[in-house]
């Protein structure tokens, strides 16, 4: 089946260039899978589409045939047409054929579910702990001090030496659902239960997703960014993220404002006294492309507005407005930007 899927993907890539263009403008395009679980789901979708298309054509064709053949003719009298009462052949066909279709779809679906959910991690697989919060994602890399938020970095997987990424997921509050369409299917993220999903993108790139389970007012802005990097680039990123925060003396004033307010009660900055765990880890906040769980790009102006009033971008966000003075907001934002 996977061979057929790869062939379909190749045909789409070669003869439907608009699909490739669509994948550039719609990064969540399910028709351009980039990892094994997504390819399996795509293949199942194509099989289902082919079956229901065949059913549509057969039923539509029979209806059209009946409409044409048994239409009212000018020379026809008003007598009732010959009626057919009972047909073992017809009743057997409309009973057996649907059963066979359901069995085929059931077996194909079961195969995909078993292949994706019962996969055992090979040696060297990357494990990441994912914690869902309202309304952001926390990513922890076990065995290291690396903790980041909303932007998941993973290595690409070489088919000859597979290195898939396994996500061990749990929720800190309510029900969430982790979904990156081009990499895998949806997986519920719920309290008190660890669910596992995996993917193995072969091509470097940015893959977007979001929470797919309504979890509150800002569910729509609980976005996911997955950066698939070459193994060397990923290792460089890991090495940089493992370091404590860079303490720039020129940013001491901003750091002082951060630490004397409630910021340090919710956020951690490794290498400083800030050790909060309720909000995202900010040790390398300046290296991230977005803030507010992907709602806006990480620019000085957006950061300043976010610190002044988080509800400006995410109404209902659990981070409160600290009512800082403009000068203090400038100092804190510059301090956070320096945390590369």
From TrEMBL:
Signal peptide, first to last residue: none
One GO process term, biological-process aspect: ATP synthesis coupled electron transport
Reaction catalysis annotation: 4 Fe(II)-[cytochrome c] + O2 + 8 H(+)(in) = 4 Fe(III)-[cytochrome c] + 2 H2O + 4 H(+)(out)
Residues in Cytochrome c domain copies: 249-340
EC number: 7.1.1.9
Domain Cytochrome oxidase subunit II copper A binding, chain residue ranges per copy: 123-240
Membrane topology designation: Multi-pass membrane protein
The protein's required cofactors: Cu cation
One CC-aspect GO term: plasma membrane
Superkingdom, natural source: Bacteria
Compartments it resides in: Cell membrane; Membrane
Chief place where the protein resides: membrane
Cofactor note as given: Binds a copper A center.
Residue ranges constituting the Cytochrome oxidase subunit II transmembrane region profile domain according to the UniProt record: 22-120
Top EC category: translocase
Listed InterPro entries: CcO_II (IPR045187), CcO_II-like_C (IPR002429), Cupredoxin (IPR008972), CuRO_CcO_Caa3_II (IPR034236), Cyt_c-like_dom (IPR009056), Cyt_c-like_dom_sf (IPR036909), Cyt_c_oxidase_su2 (IPR014222), Cyt_c_oxidase_su2_TM_dom (IPR011759)
Keywords associated with the record: Copper, Electron transport, Heme, Iron, Membrane, Metal-binding, Respiratory chain, Translocase, Transmembrane, Transmembrane helix, Transport
One Gene Ontology molecular-function label: cytochrome-c oxidase activity
TM region positions: 41-68, 92-114
Iron as UniProt keyword: yes
PROSITE patterns on file: COX2_CUA (PS50857), COX2_TM (PS50999), CYTC (PS51007)
Function, in words: Subunits I and II form the functional core of the enzyme complex. Electrons originating in cytochrome c are transferred via heme a and Cu(A) to the binuclear center formed by heme a3 and Cu(B).
Similarity section: Belongs to the cytochrome c oxidase subunit 2 family.
Protein name, per record: Cytochrome c oxidase subunit 2
């Amino acid at each position: 089946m996977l061979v057929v899927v790869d062939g379909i993907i190749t045909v789409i890539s070669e003869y439907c260039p608009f699909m490739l263009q669509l994948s550039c403008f719609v990064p969540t395009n399910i028709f351009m899978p980039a990892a094994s679980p997504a390819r399996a789901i795509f293949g199942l979708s194509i099989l289902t589409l082919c079956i229901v298309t065949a059913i549509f054509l057969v039923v539509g064709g029979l209806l059209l045939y009946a409409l044409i053949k048994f239409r009212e003719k000018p020379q026809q009298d008003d007598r009732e047409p010959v009626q057919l009462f009972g047909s073992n052949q017809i009743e057997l066909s409309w009973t057996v054929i649907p059963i066979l279709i359901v069995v085929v779809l059931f077996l194909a679906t079961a195969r995909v579910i078993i292949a994706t959910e019962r996969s055992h991690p090979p040696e060297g697989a990357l494990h990441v702990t994912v914690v869902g919060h309202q309304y952001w994602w926390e990513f922890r890399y076990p065995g290291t001090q690396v903790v980041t938020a909303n932007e998941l970095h993973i290595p690409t997987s070489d088919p000859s030496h597979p290195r898939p990424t396994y996500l061990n997921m749990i929720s800190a509050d309510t029900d969430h659902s982790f979904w990156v369409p081009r990499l895998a299917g949806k997986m519920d993220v719920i309290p008190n239960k660890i669910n596992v999903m995996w993917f193995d993108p072969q091509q470097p790139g940015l893959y977007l997703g979001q929470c797919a389970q309504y979890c509150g007012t800002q569910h729509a802005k609980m976005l996911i960014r997955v950066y698939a990097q070459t193994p060397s680039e990923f290792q460089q990123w890991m090495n940089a993220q493992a370091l404590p925060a860079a303490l720039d003396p020129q940013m001491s004033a901003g750091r002082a404002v951060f630490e004397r307010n409630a910021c340090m009660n919710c956020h951690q900055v490794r290498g400083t006294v800030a050790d909060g765990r309720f909000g995202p880890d900010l040790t390398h906040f300046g290296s991230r492309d977005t803030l507010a769980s992907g709602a806006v790009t990480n620019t000085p102006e957006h950061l300043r507005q976010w610190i002044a009033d988080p509800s400006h971008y995410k109404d209902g966000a659990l981070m409160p407005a600290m009512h800082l003075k403009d000068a203090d907001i400038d100092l804190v934002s510059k301090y956070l930007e320096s945390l590369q």
